Amino acid sequence: MKVTVSVHGVEKSYGAVKALRNVSFDLVPGRLSALVGHNGAGKTTLIKILAGVYPDDGGTIKVGGQTVKFTSPRDAQRAGIETIYQHLALADNIDAAGNLFLGRELLTGWGTLDTHRMAHEAGAIMRRINPSFTQTHLPVRALSGGQRQTVAIARALYFKAKILIMDEPTAALGPGETRMVKDMIRGLKQDGLGIFLVSHEMRDVFDVCDRIVVLKNGKLVGSTRVSEVTEEDVLGMIILGKNPAARAETGAQPA
Question: For 200, which DSSP code?
Answer without folding.
Answer: S
